[in-house]
Amino acid sequence: MRLKQVGAVVAALSLGAALVACGPNTNGNSGSGKASSSSAFSKTLSGDLKTYGYNPSDEVGKSRSDYATGELKGVKVTMDTSNFDTQKFAAQAAAGQVPDLIQADRNVIATLADKKLIMPMDQCYALWGVKPTDRYYPSTIADVTYQGHVYAVPQFFQASALLVDKRVLKKAGVSLDQLDTSKPDQLVAAAKRMTKAEGGKPTVIGFAPDVPGSTSTWFTVFGGRINDGSGKPTLDDPKNVKALSWLKKLTDAQGGYAKNKSLLDSMDVFGAKNQYVKDQVGVQVWAQWYVNVLAEYKSDVDIEAVPIKTLDGKTLAMAGGSALAIPTKSGNPSAACAWAIKVASPEAWQQASDARQQTVTKTKAINTGLFTGSPVADQANRKQYVKPSGDADFDQVINTYYDILPQNRSTGSSAVGQSITDSLNNAVIVALSGDKTPQQALAQAQSAAMRAWDQSNAGKKG
């Protein structure tokens, strides 16, 4: 659940607007050497490497960065560990003082590529003998591919599934087989049975679909998509309208968007009185990382995971994540390339797996696995460290999140990815609140996204 995302939608900055004035001809760079995608990369490494956005704040991040830095002999690595910010990067690009390597959300990689602010990494991969779609899930590579070129190294793929409170289901007389997303009308009926209210206000939400955060997943369930293969927005696709109409029906059956949001916002999501401890929700859409939160309260929850399926019954795994990219004006692209490849390598993930297991052993927690974005690393971690925990519920949940990984699917990259997301989020709120019909809301969102598309280089090329 992205419970705080809703309030940020209106204030969200359009990446295209922030970067439109910052092209590849900015003078200067952050160090010695010139960055051209045709001759930028070498295994001869030296000098300084400045990163921006990578934060080694836990044992997983630190062990990987320590490994990568240790592999780059003769290179001094300094980190700006603050989160990647489009305005800050735009200012750096305008001033010709960009970092050598950035970590950003995969959703913005195609936009940065469209603005020529980052360089293709195909030759970087080739230099180090890495085939992107072999090392990483195809969906994560699709997320960072623009006009046939790979522009980043992906990290993490923590797919979403339905996380069920079995006590709520039992009390309502709902069975797990009624939580089949390929049968949406059945799901609405089950949600309505699980929902409870007092004084006109819900005290238990039967089914929380995580919208607007997971809207693109629900569009995919219904056969829709937010952009086509070229990246052009397709928000008003009839299948998307059908999906949003269903989400409105689902929400209305449980008291309406405003009342649901009020209860969701009040939940102690990360605390000892979270919604699964207090039985405040029957089903929620959650990415895999939330299992780590609930593991701390394993004796107080009764949970199970159910895969999300498309209308034709196929299991669906979708997730966002971050990626490492090299600015066009990087002063040390060779070191940036090497560090990015090393920090997301099987060897780095092995270091992370070892470090995570040490933490698990020390805290007597459950090892819920690492979902790295790399099938090789995921399988190695699962085989070595993900063992039966003694808690059947958590073992089932962990195994479900692993089992859905082969069905990974990308939302698709777009030169206006952030604009599409912002427009979609606004449309969902407007539609679920009843201010516009789903068709009207998505038509308006499509118009806004198309304005951004028409200003992009990809859009200008048709």
Automatic annotation (TrEMBL):
Keywords noted in UniProt: Signal
InterPro entries per UniProt: Bact_solute-bd_prot1 (IPR050490)
Top-level division of the source organism's lineage: Bacteria
SUPFAM superfamilies: Periplasmic binding protein-like II (SSF53850)
PROSITE patterns (UniProt xref): PROKAR_LIPOPROTEIN
Record's signal peptide: 1-23
Name this protein carries in UniProt: Carbohydrate ABC transporter substrate-binding protein, CUT1 family
Keyword rRNA processing: no
